[in-house]
Design goal:
This protein is mostly beta strands. It has 2 domains: about 325 residues, Jelly Rolls (Sandwich); about 140 residues, Sandwich (Jelly Rolls), CATH 2.60.120.10. Helices cover about 5% and strands about 30% of the residues. It has 3 helices and 29 strands. Strand 8 and strand 9 form a beta hairpin. The structure holds fe (ii) ion. The site of fe (ii) ion has 5 residues, from loops. Fe (ii) ion (FE2) binds next to loops.
Amino acid sequence: MSLGTQGGGTQHSAQHGTQHGTHRGTHHPGAMTADRAAAHLQRAREAAQSLEYLSGFGNEHSSEAVPGALPVGRNSPQRAPLGLYAEQLSGTAFTEPRANNRRSWLYRIRPSAAHPRFVRSDNGALRTAPFTETLPDPNRLRWDPLPEPAPGTDFLAGLWTLGGNGDAAQRTGMAVHLYAANSPMLDRVFTDADGELLIVPQQGGLLLRTEFGLLRADPGQVALVPRGVRLRVELLDPFVRGYVCENYGRPFTLPDLGPIGANGLANPRDFQAPVAAYEDDERGPGERHIEVIAKFCGNLWTARYAHSPLDVVAWHGNHVPYVYDLRRFNVIGSISYDHPDPSIFTVLTSPSDTPGLAGTDFVVFAPRWLVGEDTFRPPYFHRNVMSEYMGLIEGAYDAKSAEPGGFVPGGGSLHNMMSAHGPDRATYERASSAELRPQKVDDGLAFMFETRWPVLPTAQALGAELLQQGYDDVWRGMERHFRADASDPSDGSGSDASDGTGSAGSATEGGAESR
Ligand SMILES: [Fe+2]
């Protein structure tokens, strides 16, 4: 437990109150002038410098931006300190087991309950489960990155839903969104009742101003924003792009380690929560309102506030946002033979009611050494009962070409339940004859959202020009190597390798293996 006493960025009333044209009732805040955009970028970069964080996933953190703002010894005193209002934010049912329970206490200038009526607003390119727009399709799919959007597109307006599964109202399943933005959210605050947001920047940095304080997320890092937490996304670069997993299910948590032991994979201390920082921003009659946009059961609703809801002066609890640097992932792998199942790369998991069966796993393919002997080292061919959406943050993935038209940074692939996939032909040919010296794989950072149900693409995802045609071709022309009479004891495979591997040799009189 730790106590931060400083605001993580001075956020006070002198807000950017008089910008640009109207955006009431739409998603698009309108383009800023180049000068104003540059000034805003500069302010965000200054605010994002040397942020202070609290360390540790799932900790009972606490923080106060003003000394004495946090009550001591109770959560809800008759009068909270400094004239603040006390409010609990519950991310799990009150009654869930202590180990799973998520809640935080917020001490704020105005209670969240003091807000005007929400009215429906346009969903833009956001879609929500259940996904019923398209026919479930067994084909493997792959997309190019989103292009730069129209000027004035902020993070929320730039969200574009690729697909998902489950049912948001039932709190099951997930959605895959992409985002591309070139404007900060101005006088707009977003909150998602449908799920938590795992934001995976691919290009350009983000500054997240949340109720709990400020987080910075650059490419290679991920931000986790719990269900219901309000945030405003500002930009640290003129153009940003990335991925979002909206997890409708149980909150992401760290996977159990079992025989791995007490350490490894994503270490809890590397998850960083913000320190308290608040905006004291009241808007008078005739001044611009602050739009609070709530996503609720699949639709966006907007209320026009006369104050910033990012007005939490102190807080404590474990329902808090985090940032995590994927390069800190402790990669565990084989030091003898075979490629372990990619579950060994799980960063976060959203459990289901069935032990070991995740609603969604977040998996990273981080730099690592490959040393397996007599092993096909890239990811193997397989068919999986789980469904896999993969994205690429930078570089190349070791089973696919990253040439244009291939699996490129910012793009993504979808291998749904039982669809056959694996290394492309060139990768197979190379890796099946490569000399097996220790090899560092460090030229890329890929990730996967792996989920228990098929990911049903949206109509826009299937109709987009981004959808690559001919993805199947990466496996076309896989050469036939089988020869029933090709027993060759000199190929070095040895008798062990024919055991139960499904190799050609296992169907013959023994020992025969050919590639
Ligand atoms: Fe796979």
